[in-house]
Each structure stands twice: as C-alpha cells, then as structure tokens.
C-alpha cells in the first residue's frame, strides 16, 4: 500500500486533468464535447494526487480502485462501478493503490444553471452539487460506462458523448443535487416573472433583443434588470441568449435536414451563416455541418436497431 509521503504529490493546479498530467497517471484519450463538457480516460497506480479544481469532475472507476482512498477518509475505498463527484473549489488528496482505469467527465459550474431552471424550477444559486465519494448509482454507472465506450474521434461519436454527458448532469442534479440551506435570496427576479421572461425570450430568439427591451418586459431599469437577471439565471443576459440560440440552431440542424444554413442562422438569431459556424464550433466543438451529419447517422443507427429488434420478434 503506498504512503502519501513516499509518492509524488504535485502542487494542485486549477484543472483535474492538469493535476493528473503532473502525476504518474497515464492519459489514454481525451475529447472536448462542447457546451463546457470534456471527457478523459485515465489509468494510474501507486501515486498521490492533489486536486483543487475550478470545475466539477465526475469520476467512474472502470476497473481497480479497491486500494485507492482519500487521505482524510482512508477507511473508504473505491471499486469498479463506484463513482466520485468532486465539486469545484473543494480540495481533495487521493492516495492511489494498484492499477486502476477511470473515466472523468469535466464540466463548468455554469452548466448547471440552465438545468436547475429547467428541471427543478430553481435559480442556480439555490442548488449545489455535494461532494460524493465511492457512491453507487446504477443510472450514472450506465451512462458513464457508455461514455467511456465511445471512441470520441468522429463527429457523431462526440455528439453521442455530449448527449450522454448532458444526461449525466441532469441525473446528478435531480438525484443528488442539494438545495442551498440558510441562504436568503436577494436581488433576483420573482419566480413567476423569471418564467415569463424565459418563455418570452425563447419565443423571440430570432429577433435582435436588447437589454432595454428585456428590462421593459420586467418593468425594471436596465441597471437593476442586469443584476436581477444574473442573480436568477446564473449568467448575463447576452450569455444566456447566446446559449439558447445555439440550442435552437442545434434543434433545427437535427430535425430540419433540408433547411439551409442561412435559414438556420436567421431562425436562431445569428447574423449570418458564418456567424453561426463560428459560434456553433466554439460552443459545441463541431461545425453545424458536422453536427447535422452526426445527428443524422445517430438517428439512422437508432432506426436500424429498432427495425432489427422488431424483426427479431416476428
């Protein structure tokens, strides 16, 4: 069994993958999935690693882990199928034993805001993810194992990986998210007004909406509105609109195969096709064309599997 003082203990950088690169861990493959998500497959043995990340990390042991523990909780050990959730800003020191393989899903805290609003009808500041160590959850184990099983090298594989990553976040928030206790919320929009504003903005994504128009909808000054919006939605108005416009473009690309790129750009509130391409690639890690191709292949694969299953029953 390794001792924490006898193995390499690096200074903890702000990213978990950077900390692992400074350790004895081996990176097998990594991919950026867009939307602030990235995934990596690692192995490590007989090491000590210190994390103090600025992002959240979901980790699943694929094999090994039975001799791995946290320095502050040596009685708890890992195992295949166990997962850990390491929230941003919380330090943790790991002592790694025999050879283990594990998959990491990294995601920015900002990714939880839209999910909290949509799935829980709660403001982002009302919900937090707890630290979880060597936890069992069949749904998360299945999602993360499927994520690890993809090769991530093709647009359609990264698209599937992104969908699985979003499913992981949604399940984490619903099954393990905690409501912030003892916090008196101030300065945000009233829940009913927040919902009306979100619906109105979704209905006008193709329009060039100004902060003044949003403030007028809420009967607030522009200055007060900007602060209230950020408190309630977890980001500035322009950032929220940009993300929703990318979502709209993705929906159109996935469901409207004959729709030209200029039409998709106009319908989703982008100034031009080139503007959409730049924004979409930055957000999703794929061009709109790659995303559409990957979505079509994924859809055809699902149809083929469904037809095969139906034929097998006849």
Automatic annotation (TrEMBL):
Keyword Oxidoreductase assigned: no
Compositional bias segments (type: Polar residues): 303-314
Listed SUPFAM superfamilies: Homeodomain-like (SSF46689)
Database matches in Gene3D superfamilies: Homeodomain-like
InterPro entries: AraC_XylS_family_regulators, Homeodomain-like_sf, HTH_AraC
Pfam families assigned: HTH_18 (PF12833)
Residues in HTH araC/xylS-type domain copies: 195-294
Ranges where the record places region Disordered: 293-314
Keywords: DNA-binding, Transcription, Transcription regulation
Signal peptide start and end residues: none
PANTHER family: ARAC SUBFAMILY, HTH-TYPE TRANSCRIPTIONAL ACTIVATOR RHAS-RELATED
Name of this protein: Helix-turn-helix domain-containing protein
Organism of provenance: Ottowia flava
